[in-house]
């Protein structure tokens, strides 16, 4: 498989210069000229290049992109997604890889862009299913993947390999290169895949940060050169596409934090994501500057800091980090508590501190609590309740809306325009976002004159085909349904299970147990009734007694013509009649489970 | 009880002029002068005036304020609140009125500020509990209350009386007056309660709107005069206190809608709240202007429009509103669909249209969908999914974030400052908001130089006492716990029921039924296992068989020394051992319900 190199024959294919006026939203705009494209590789192979966003095109999370040419396949990222409200009890959702069933040997590698769970979280579950293909990541990314793998000792050994950013990889027919990008965790890469049909670029999560923290600046030269050589299609991060302007540098956070720290006289408690390593670094630096020691609270935060420190991605003085026991003996203005739980997670450190359930810390007047992360959609109400509790306990609460303590990790509209201009891809495929975000990316591309038909807003699993320099979005779909992880089960929780959970969470359940003599149909003893989540049983004695009487009458009312007991008939009648009775009495519809025991 | 009139002896009580510099957030501000207060009524009574926010001080919703002097009590508003995520199956939450138990005859009236459910929704449930006190509302408000009452035919007849805004009411010792305010439904009033200890003012929900739609302008003269006479305490709407600047006039929405309607060539679908009557009016007007007929989809919207039309609060041409059957026969550019469901509610019209489940309408290319309401915190993700579906179906989606199609119904920071300056109350009590919003109101008051100790940020049920012109926030609390309405039950769903619902929604449940001979302890037949929401039973046959074997072994393992069966012991053992077994196999913890039948 080494006969293909990255030097495909190039053939100049001049493209018509676009002079259309974009009339989206009915607004007239100045006529911009889209520059003619650089040389574009022409298709030479006998196959079509097939690309699909397996996960991350209709949701935020579980990112995975598939690139296929002939028999060869590579995957980019292998993430997880957190469940929606109508998926109770589910731990998370991972990409569907059933298209690869039976083709595990064709899968040349999984390439990981960076160490966040929405890009690596599927690995422990999917690596064994895929027969442990080589997984490529940068040093820090691999550190985090390895650490997480410790939680899954039974899943087999993954084949993790380190990326050298300056060293191309040959993966079957594909030559893969990398370029450094910035995000809010160090050591992120964008991926360049040279194929017989042209070059694909995948940004992963990225922002342009001219003053990054503990990270190298985006490799603009490599990106620009790539643009000169010709890019067939660009898959780019859509997360912040609806936001106008440029993303703020992570360094700017440092100025705001500095201002807060300079003025605070009590303890400072910073809630943020365990995975925002650059932010953790800044909180450590500013604490050191103002003579504060730092306590880390939260398991995942501790372990991320440990990994990053070991691998040299976090700089911290030897004496800065202390234990909670040491912290409680220090004056308040010498302490920073850096903790998880800024999303209002019920068991995380910040919530336990707020509700006085933390072993060492509780809120006292004079505390400043900084929420240094954006709120994940859907968590607004929970975060609001957490803030209310903190305020009630006497803390001063600073959120990024009130002061600028958050710079996002994702490119905004103007950043995307710069990327598009630098790379100059023929096709743009917005990735990493739900439909709304992908459409916003498309609007951005159209604002800089990409023709609408060259921007593919795809659904999960939809195949995009490229051949002879032309691409199109086909109607073919590979499987992309949700695969739900619940405890040890992967994909075993199906719709019916979720529906039952939801039903029971609405009005509870009502189990009726009757014992009947098989031969005669005679009811033995009193029917048992167990109910949970329906009514408070102690207060509902009368209702339950009435229901029990009704059950007795139903069971006695057996068909005198038939000698044998028809249990199914009795069950159906119990379900229907008792269900109706309870609804009429309570306007609730508990799940009714009739059990008929024959003795 | 008529001996007290509203003309209390006034005594000038000059107050020190404040010249403090507000240093909140460490910012230095220009030194503002708080004007000396107007004459302040002095306490003459033998009782203290007691005020409590019964509901709506730690949440958004279920608004109720209690005013008590001696034996006399009045309530302001009687709302409901929608449940949180950790309250599955609950319909809504209403105020706790147990403080009034046994004192129903002391309750002189419930006064309603306006016809929104967070102000009237508790009436059907609480009016009978309170022995049907007089309930006062304006004409439109009463129309909505009466309409809702039709859903509760068994709750008894409420004693609803109409407010004449210019006519004071004598309610026990209290003289109550009204002043017109604006909101996003017509016919809203603020409430003035003259008490022996001074005058209280309650704004209800309000905004200042100089160009209101189908409504009178706020009565500034009455407010200013009241301020001159002296106000003891002001309870004011905090909903939008964190937003800087002034609220936009509802009329401005009309300009934006006009622009969208003028440019749209296909159908226009407007999703909004059924209760935003002013918005519905504007959509009707702009539709009429552009020759579109309007279909109303959504039961509550239809009924609100019907009430408002009948009472003269909505103007619509005789032929504007058409049926869906008529609409589908018209050209697309002649149709507006105005519907409920802009919050992503699963059964509302907009969702059914998006998911192709609506009887008459489904999305087609060329449709413009306008979300004309803000997103209630917590609904962000659901709304996002709805928008994604609409986009996928081919609609153009306009939300208020993208274009200004939403003007809120609540005063922003600068509006509050104007109110404070006009009314000049001695004390300010922010109401109608969670802690975060109340604190934001307090910040606003402090920015215009109210001393911190004159702004009461109260918790639900906390008694504020006023006597001799001085007020303070006591530590006394009257009951204010959540009262949950679930179907026909009011307050019968308690924590234990909710906890069970949550447990079952996480990992489902697992019922084990064994039949045992009482005398010998011998197991009869095979144990029955019923499980829902735990695993997909068809795929888990092996697991269930293993569990059943384990159940058999547990039941056989009876104590040979004891003749009689100890069912409790068996039940406990089943619960513990099978629970542990299932957790070990699946990492899930279903609720285990062992049933032992003795025969």
Low-confidence stretches of chain A: 1-41
The helix tally of chain A amounts to 15
Measured by residues with Cβ under 8 Å of the partner chain's Cβ, the largest interface is: A-B, 69 and 69 residues
Task: Estimate the mean pLDDT confidence of chain A.
Answer: 88
Determine Rg of chain A (CA atoms, Å): 29 Å
N-end to C-end Cα span of chain A: 69 Å
Summarize the main sheet of chain A.
8 strands, mixed
How many E-type strands of chain A? 28
Characterize the quaternary organization of these chains: homodimer
Helix/strand/pairing category of chain A: alpha/beta
- Percent of residues in β-strands of chain A: 15-25%
Shape of chain A: globular
| Helix content estimate of chain A | 25-40%
Sheet with most strands: strand arrangement of chain A: 9-8-7-5-4-3-22-23
Please give a structural write-up.
Two copies of one chain form a homodimer. In chain A, β19 (368-371), α10 (380-392) and β20 form a beta-alpha-beta unit. In chain A, 28% of the residues lie in helices and 24% in strands. In chain A, α3 (139-149) packs across α7. Mean pLDDT of chain A is 88; it is low at 1-41. Chain A contains 15 helices and 28 strands. By secondary structure, chain A is α/β, with parallel strands linked by helices. In chain A, the strands form six sheets. The first copy, chain A, has an eight-stranded mixed sheet with strand order 9-8-7-5-4-3-22-23. Chain A has a six-stranded mixed sheet with strand order 10-11-12-13-14-21. A six-stranded parallel sheet of chain A has the order 17-16-18-15-19-20, with helices on both faces. The radius of gyration of chain A is 29 Å and the shape is globular. Chains A and B meet through α10, α12, α13, β26 and β27 of A and α10, α12, α13, β26 and β27 of B.
């Amino acid at each position: 498989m080494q006969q293909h190199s990255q030097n495909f024959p190039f053939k100049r294919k001049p493209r018509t210069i676009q002079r259309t006026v974009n009339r989206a939203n009915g607004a007239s705009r100045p006529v911009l000229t889209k520059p003619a494209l650089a040389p574009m590789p022409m298709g030479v192979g006998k196959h079509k290049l097939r690309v699909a966003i397996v996960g991350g095109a209709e949701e935020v999370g579980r990112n995975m992109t598939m690139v296929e040419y002939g028999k060869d396949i590579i995957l980019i990222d292998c993430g997880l997604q957190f469940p929606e409200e109508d998926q109770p009890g589910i731990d998370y959702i991972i990409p569907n890889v059933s298209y690869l069933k039976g083709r595990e040997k064709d899968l040349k590698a999984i390439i990981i862009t960076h160490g966040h769970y929405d890009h690596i979280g599927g690995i422990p579950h999917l690596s064994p299913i895929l027969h442990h293909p080589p997984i490529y990541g940068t040093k820090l990314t691999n550190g985090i993947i390895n650490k997480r793998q410790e939680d899954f000792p039974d899943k087999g050994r993954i084949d993790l390999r380190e990326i050298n950013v300056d060293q191309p990889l040959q993966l079957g027919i594909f030559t893969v290169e990398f370029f450094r990008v910035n995000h809010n965790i160090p050591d992120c890469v964008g991926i360049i895949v040279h194929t017989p049909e042209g070059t694909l670029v995948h940004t992963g999560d990225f922002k342009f940060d001219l003053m990054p923290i503990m990270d190298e600046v985006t490799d603009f030269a490599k990106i620009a050169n790539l643009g000169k050589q010709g890019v067939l299609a660009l898959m780019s991060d859509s997360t912040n596409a609806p936001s106008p302007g440029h993303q703020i540098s992570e360094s700017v956070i440092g100025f705001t934090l500095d201002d807060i720290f300079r003025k605070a006289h009590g303890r400072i408690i910073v809630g943020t994501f365990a995975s925002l390593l650059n932010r953790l670094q800044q909180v450590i630096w500013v604490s050191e500057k103002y003579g504060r020691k730092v306590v880390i609270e939260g398991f995942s935060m501790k372990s991320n800091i440990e990994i990053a420190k070991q691998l040299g991605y976090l700089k911290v003085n030897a004496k800065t980090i202390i234990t909670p026991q040491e912290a409680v003996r220090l004056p308040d203005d010498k302490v920073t508590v850096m903790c998880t739980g800024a999303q209002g997670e019920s068991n995380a450190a910040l919530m336990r501190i707020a509700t006085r359930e933390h072993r060492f810390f509780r809120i006292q007047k004079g505390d400043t609590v900084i929420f240094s992360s954006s709120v994940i959609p859907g968590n607004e109400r929970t975060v609001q309740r957490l803030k209310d509790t903190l305020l009630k306990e006497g803390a001063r609460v600073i959120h990024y809306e009130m002061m600028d303590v958050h710079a996002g990790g994702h490119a905004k509209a103007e950043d995307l325009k710069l990327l598009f201009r630098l790379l100059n891809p023929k096709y743009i495929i917005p990735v990493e976002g739900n439909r709304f975000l992908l459409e916003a990316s498309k609007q951005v591309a159209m604002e800089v004159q990409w023709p609408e038909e060259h921007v593919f807003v795809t659904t999960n699993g939809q195949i995009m085909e490229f051949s002879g320099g032309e691409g199109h979005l086909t109607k073919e779909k590979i499987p992309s349904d949700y695969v739900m992880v619940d405890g040890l089960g992967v994909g075993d929780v199906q719709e019916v299970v979720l529906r039952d959970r939801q039903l029971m969470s609405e009005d509870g359940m009502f189990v009726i147990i009757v014992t009947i003599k098989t031969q005669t149909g005679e009811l033995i003893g009193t029917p048992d009734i167990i109910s949970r989540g329906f009514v408070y049983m102690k207060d509902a004695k009368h209702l339950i007694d009435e229901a029990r009487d009704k059950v007795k009458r139903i069971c006695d009312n057996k068909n005198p013509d038939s000698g044998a007991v028809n249990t199914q008939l009795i069950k159906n009648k119990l379900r229907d009649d008792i269900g109706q009775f309870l609804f009429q009495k309570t306007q609730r519809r508990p799940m009714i489970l009739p059990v008929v025991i024959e003795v």
